[in-house]
Amino acid sequence: MTHMYSLDGILVFGLLFVCTCAYFKKVPRLKTWLLSEKKGVWGVFYKAAVIGTRLHAAVAIACVVMAFYVLFIK
């Protein structure tokens, strides 16, 4: 039986989600529309944007490491 999800795929999705939400925080229209809620289901976008902006160095390093892994090792 094959696995439906792989750990590296979930990590790539998480990193891309955090980076995208951090970018949305910099765009004024998207910030008011998508990141206005801080609780509930829509609060996930806000929390990912906060993680992306506060830990920008760690997220950038993780993106570079994951890109190297996906391109050359996998």
Could you characterize the architecture of this molecule?
It is globular, with a radius of gyration of 14 Å. The chain contains 4 helices and no strands. The longest helix has 20 residues. The chain is mostly helical and 74 residues long. 77% of the residues lie in helices and 0% in strands. The relative contact order is 0.15.
Question: Which labels suit this protein?
Answer:
single chain, 74 residues, 4 helices, Kish-B, golgi apparatus, transmembrane, Protein kish
State the gist of this model.
The chain crosses the membrane at residues 48-72. The chain is mainly α.
Strand content: under 5%
Rg, nearest Å: 14 Å
Low-confidence stretches: none
> Which term fits the overall shape?
globular
Number of helices in the DSSP assignment = 4
Subcellular location: Golgi apparatus membrane
GO cellular component, one term: Golgi membrane
Pfam family, one: DUF1242
Main location: Golgi
